[in-house]
């Protein structure tokens, strides 16, 4: 979903609604409404009927799965097993997960933390929970070290017929960048993309794609995890200098601290599936506050059809 701003003072009224029927299927509708002082605009995205595992939702089987996961000794075993499956699957797809992780953990990446971390930042409560089978969630070096391999694995699964990860990236990231460029040209005319904000940039994979696509722009990657940002900065230094170096910012996307109308393009990639609704609303409000007239917001994320698996990961 890409949205173009031609007017100011937007406020997000609602974000999502999910309707369930009795046969285990669901129809998901995501509506984002923005109200402005001069006019109203709305963008809607609707998916068709989606299958979901029988153990998801409010069913006896789902409650049993929830109870099993809540039992900590068993939960630890399940998380370990899930991690091993993810790693083996990635490595079968020629993604050197363990080798990439080891390279980061045995590097000097830790030296980047001091220059990245904002010690006064207060983390939102949801961000402090265990996530993705990491007890410390995204606030850990292991999560940061494995993030790029996990991202590569996700792209590989999205394009199963691709012969390589690079080919899969050309499809997923290439289509994403092409959609951004075409939308901006269609709705923003001759407005230059001078400043870009990548919200929830993780270890900088999407940020580097944006910087490569728009080399004359000033690109900023923002994330709540100083560990992820440290890896992003460390990897960027290894790549070499750019005409416009990427800036990395440790901040909460709900309240970035940037002045209004600071960016021509705001990207939110693979973030919202990890956030509660209140955070999504606040991030969208902040994104529109930061957008210049004629600017573009682009949101990309995983299909809601895998919501059940995301719920299991979060638990």
UniProtKB/TrEMBL annotation:
Q: Which domain of life is it from?
A: Eukaryota
**GO molecular-function term, one example from the UniProt record:** methyltransferase activity
Query: Residues in domain Methyltransferase?
Result: 196-295
Q: Which Pfam families match?
A: Methyltransf_25
- Lineage, uppermost ranks: Eukaryota, Viridiplantae, Streptophyta, Embryophyta, Tracheophyta
List the SUPFAM superfamilies: S-adenosyl-L-methionine-dependent methyltransferases
The protein's name: Methyltransferase domain-containing protein
